[in-house]
Structure formats: structure tokens, C-alpha cells
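Subject: for your reference before the review

Hello V.,

The reviewers asked for a structural picture of the protein, and I figured it would be easier to keep everything in one thread rather than splitting it across files. Below is the amino acid sequence we used in the manuscript, unchanged from the supplementary table.
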Amino acid sequence: MESAQSASTAAVTQPIPFLKALRFWLKLGFISFGGPAGQIAVMHRELVERRRWISDGRFLHALNYCMILPGPEATQLAVYIGWLMHGTLGGIIAGTLFVLPGALLLTALSWSYIAFGKVPLVAGVLYGFKAAVIALIVAALLRIGRKAIRSVALALIALAALAVTLWTPLPFPALLLGAGLLGFLIERLAPGVLEKPKLSAPEIHSADSAQGIHSAESAQPVEKCVIDDHSPTPPHARVSATKLMATAAVFAILLGAPLLALSVWRGYDDVFARMSRFFLLAAFVTVGGAYAVLPYVTEMSTRVYGWLAPGQMIDGLALGETTPGPLILVLTFVGYVGAWNVEHQRYGVWGALAGALIATYFTFVPSFMFILLGGPGVEQTRGELRLGAIMTTITAAIVGVICEMAILFSQHVFFPAGLKSFDVAALVITAAAFAALQWKKADVVLVVMGCGVSGALWQALRG
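And here is what came back from the structure prediction:
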């Protein structure tokens, strides 16, 4: 009996075949709809519950680390688990396959948007998409706000952040830095004033992931995982000063060489050089997820650089919601349409494709860097990741920033010709979309598509 059990355990804990993992990451790249909550839930169901490749505790430990990093947490979680299973190559393949299908699809949609965006039928669909975006932002604001605003002090911080973004030119990175510093000072001078919500998986609402992500205490594994809570750290995941320095040098070249080359070749103020610097900076200040950085991207790409009109930014966000992969892929749309708007007379579609490539590259390469550089240290200090009041106040400030974005987008959707006009039809579509999201827990993609159909029908009725 004992020998049979040992044989069974040995069979379960054999290394995960590389090709089998590759097929899984490729499949995930095509089915990862629903934003980070849905994507993380799919990974949890497939990797923890179904395949038993990694334990619940190790999964949540990796997730907690990814949630405090700048950048898209679902992408970084895929990189982390791929790296933990198969080293650097495994992490690169997992992250690339998670992002690539959505990036290619959104690039194709960006081309279609430029080519056919003014066709009446397509314009009607985009009209409905804009209304859906307002509903999505308000739903995200409520979801994040419920988790972040847990005291009067945090509510005041959120209101202060809203006022700062509305009436001052303070840059988004400076706002986050100030909020973090405020949290540190409050914790030192008045301990207990702020709550310290424990980092955990986001709320899951999609029907495809009704079981959600549960804690290690509530999920007793039926069979042994390949990488369980007590598995030793793999050799490639151990801390090594030599490997750390080599990895840092590689990423310094990967990020620094194209950045320098574009500035020297094209000129420091050229649109492509500016895009490379901007998207790299955005990758380092996206704490809090895509909805947290979108106000910053909107402000810089529309008001500061003038690459896009505000209405185009709303369209890009709607298209991003209909594609698989991380929502921050909307930056691919920004790069494509921004480069087209500025340089289409000189370079045509090739310039737009270059803009999309620059945006995607500089947005996602830092995510690989954070994992491959920080992963060994995280594995060594398993379960000890805490930033306390700093993350609490930053998250509260992000609520105010998202609220500012909701106000800005609402002005363009509901008052398209100024305050003297009001689009009742857009409000009706938005209200219906919000009700479907908030109370019916409808799938995001279906809601956006339904709004597109409604917009097309309304525009057709208007003639």
C-alpha cells in the first residue's frame, strides 16, 4: 500500500512538461477576457484547481507580489508562474503568449478604426462603445472604492486627489509619491488612523469564475500539487548575485538601447522618441492596475502631447475591453492612432505600426524585468510582503484619479457639443450597461457588444 502511494505521489510531482505548459499559455492568451479579475480567476482554476501545477498558497503569494508592482498584475502573474515552473525561458514564453494575441488583434482593430471609423455603421457602433466605457469606469470606480475607502481619512485623501487632478498640473507620478509619503507619515505619527487591508485577489464577478480565488485555509487540496506550499525553491529561482547582475544588465540594454537609438536617429523631440520615453515611464507608474494609469495616459496623450482626441481615447478603451489580454493593451491603440495622427502623411500605416510596436514594447518589457529580477527575493521571503499604509493611501488617491477620468470622459460622451447640449440616448445606453454590469453581473464583452449594437441602431434611426 505504501509503495503504491509513493508511486502515485511521485507521478503527481513529476516536472511539468514544457510543451504542455506552452500549450496552456497559448490557450490562455486567446481566452483571457474579462479584465484582471477574470484572467486571474481563470489561471487559478486551471493551474491550482484543475491541473494541480501550483498550490493555492504559492499562487496567492505570487499574486500578492504582482499586485504591489507597477504594471498589469495578471500579465506579471503569468510571467511569475511560468518562470517558477520553467525558469527564464518559461517566464518569457508565458508572458509573451499572454499578451501577444490581444496585441495583434488590437493592432488590427486600430487599423480598422482609422480606415472605417467614419463609416456611418461603424460610427454608430463606436457611439455605443463610448457609452459602455462610462459604465465600465463607474463600475470599476465603485468596485475599487469599496475596497479602498474604509475610513474618513481615506475618503479625504481620495477627495484631495480628485481636487489635485482637476485643478492643478501636478503630474501623476508626483501624486502617487505624495500619497505614499502621506501614508508613511500617518502611520508613523498616528498609528491606527488608516486601515491596512490585506493584499488579496480581486473580487471575481464573472460567471466563468464563480468559485473565485479562495484562501489556502479554505481550499484543502485533493491531491498533491507539483509545486506545493512546502516544495523547495527550484535552483533557478534561488537568489544569486551573479545572475541578478546579469539580468539587470540585459534589461538595461533591452530598454536603454532602443530608447537611445530612437532619440539619436529620430531626434529627441520626434514623436517616436517621445513615445518611447512616455510609455516606459507609464510602465513604472501603473500602480493600481490599468484603470489607475488610464487618467495619466489620457492626460499626456490628449492634452500634453496632442497625439489623440479625447473621443479617440474613449474609443480605444472600448476596443481594448473587447479583446483578450490585459486592459493596458489600450496603450497599443494609443501608439498606433497617435503615430497615425502625427505622421501619417510621411509614413502612412508603417508609421502607425511603429507607434503600436513602441507602445507595446516599452509597456510590457518592464513587467518581465520586475519578475525576473525580483522573483528570487520574493521566493526567499515567502509570505512576508507588506507595504501597509503606503499602499493604502496610494490606492485611496487612485480612486480620486479614476473619478477625474470618469468626469472627463462623461463630458465628451454626454455633452458632445458643450454644456448647452445633452445626449439623452448616450445616457440611456450607459445606464443600461451599468445595470447589466452591476446587478446582472453580465460579461463585459457582451455588454460592450450590446452597447455597440444599440449605438448602431440609434444612429440608423436618426438617419
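For the response letter, the relevant points are probably these. Confidence is low (pLDDT under 50) at residues 1-12, 196-221. The CA atoms of residues 162 and 403 lie 7 Å apart.

Happy to draft the paragraph if you're swamped.

O.
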